[in-house]
Amino acid sequence: MLFPADVGLDLVQSKIKSLAEFLDVYLKIANVHTVDFYTNDVWNQFVALPPEAVISQLLCPQGDRTAPEKIDASVWDESEKLRDVAAYKRVTQDHSLPNLGVCTSLNDLLQEMWGNKQKGSSLECQHDLAGFGYSWMGIILIEATGPDVFLKPSTFMSSKKSHEVELMSEVIVSFAKYCSIQQVIDIGSGKGYLSSYLSMQYGLNVYGIDSSSTNTSGANERNRKLKRYWKVYQRQTKRQNQHNSAPKNLEEEPANNMESFEEAKEQISLGGEQENSLQNQSSHIQTPVMDTSLDLETSERSNNVVSAQFVGSIETEFDGTDNLFLEFLSTDAVEMNSLSRKKRDLDDKEKERRKTAGLDAKAKQIKEANLYSPLTLHVTSTTELQDIISDIKDSMLVGLHTCGDLASDILRIFVTKQELKVVCSVGCCYHLLSEEFELSDDSKECCHGPWGFPMSQYLRSSSWHCGRNARMSACLPLERVTFGQGLPSESLFYRAVLQVIIKEHFGNGKAYTTLQRTKNKNIGKIYSKSSSFVDYIRKSVEKLGMDNSKMSDSLIQGYYDRYMPRMKELEAFNLLKVALSPCIEGLILLDRLCYLKEQENVAWSALVQLFDPLKSPRCYAVIGVKK
Known about the structure:
The protein is α/β, with parallel strands linked by helices. The protein has a domain at 212-376. Helices cover 48% and strands 8% of the residues. The protein has 25 helices and nine strands. It has helices spanning 9-30, 42-46, 51-58, 85-94, 106-114, 123-128, 159-178, 193-202, 213-243, 248-251, 261-266, 296-317, 323-327, 336-341, 348-369, 405-416, 441-446, 457-460, 468-473, 478-482, 489-506, 510-518, 533-543, 553-563, 567-597, and strands at residues 135-136, 139-140, 183-187, 205-210, 372-376, 395-403, 420-428, 602-609, 620-626. The protein has a seven-stranded mixed sheet, with helices on both faces. Strands 1-2 form a two-stranded antiparallel sheet. It is globular and about 90 Å long.
């Protein structure tokens, strides 16, 4: 197995030990809740410096990072308050994933898998990857038999999603080809961006599973439109490559042919929000969609002419074969009646063949053509994939930004299911993880299965826990903040001052007692709907079920005036939490990697940075390959 040298279990465990010892000291910063910042006088409790000094040090360019052999005691003073921001910054950097020496380079991984095959220059490489349309590190590989058609995801996705889908697809396809896998199971597939791209661009058979029926139905409809767009895109690109002609040649085709490239493209919104509204848009030719409310006679009258013209153009384009046509349609875009109507436009020999084929053969043909199948199911670690995928075979299990425990469950499913040969999981939303050893009783009451964290026996043996606020801090985007995309300080400031008002005016009330007991401190997105601080406070107090009639506008404004000079404290403290975020995320991800390395049936596993953290902050993938 030609993969980069495996990072050993002993090394991973030693890094976990070092990181856990570090966080034992520093988690007190990450576990502070912003809501309680002023009510608990957090700044004076933890920091012995003015906020301006903290901000200037944390946002200054990276300086000398000579790593100390152990935690620098000068970070804290005798009263355990932060006194040296430069030392704090250095020690957090030293305990972040990029500096722990346990990650595998994506470039090294692909280099090792494909040896000396350099970016499409080798004919041998072209033959090995034929049929996959493989693009290594952004360079399109051209098949020896002719130019391939490469679909740029940026044409139908946001720049962030395009970046994620393109890079993760390259990794998935590399492992699929290397391990002779044709089936991919995408857990938490959402709107189907990754699944659609894998099925159309690379011809992989993809099952996209999501717990939301809204996401699944939306993905199904969007996939249907996307495949129509892909068909036009493919034909246009081939003609341009063959004839070196401008796209205007497409405009000269008869009006009864496939819709134009731009018309098809317009039917696919970047974010998928317009999918429902676009269902009824008309184009030159509409793909017949099954409608059980119409009888056969009415359906034939409405679609007969269109079907004849459509099938005629497809046969002319692809030498009479309809497999390619079916390849780009999902099952909900083809009806049995439309298949029977096309017989009229075929020769006698083909008609006879179709008559003897039978309905079973047609149904099988449609199923095989639908390379991407969206399914609705809530997946847990005990889910039996055979119950929902009848033809499951050697497969690769993937997940792109799966929330909370789902990222952990994907790894557990991979380990326990023999038919799963490779896993590639990128998790997110660490604050939604369930923790086995968290002190909060509320978290234990809501969890009825394996815990999301910790997973490894090594970390579980020490009963280690982060806490929800620390896991929330792990989601903070360090690189974005460092490069000027700051946190929403004003909204956080409003919420912290609101807590002061609630405590001082409703501290002994029933509503406040209920609020504290349930720990329901989330008031929603009221900030974006408020015209001023006073408006924000009134709307928030009303939502919490408290009577604000005794508070005048001047009283509320007085709180704003009192705490506004201390807003820098909140900004500076949040930067301290941001600096810790890669360390907490690192422990969570190393725990998952350690879990895979503890399994006897896993031959190779690694932690690989796939994405640019400026574009996609949750950028690390946990990858595993079975023996």
